[in-house]
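Chapter summary example.
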Amino acid sequence: MIIQVSPQAEARLMEQLGDRPGFFKLFYDTDGCGCDGITVLLILNERDSDDVPIEAGSLPFVINKEQQIHFESCLRLQSENNFPSFRLSSDSMIYGSNVKVHDLRDVANVTSESTEWSLG
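The structure predicted for these 120 residues follows.
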């Protein structure tokens, strides 16, 4: 799997990562959203055992191997000036034009599969 990250999106993601270690996790969240699901980017301290790397240039991206079915193999991540979220798309579909980043590094012992965090 590959994510082509625009230069502007890469700069914004690097800023959110800061000087602390962490991984960006592409995550398709279906819990409690009242819809089919939404795409989010999580920043986690470490990978889960079922995570696989995503080629995304210099950015550390992963995805749960079971969640790969929700996405095409080649994606694009873009951002716009003065808009706080990202757009994730492929050649044939838009996965989200309001993809948000949630930094979970300060939440103790939380994995993306945990129910102890929420997008609210």
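To summarize the output: The radius of gyration is 13 Å.
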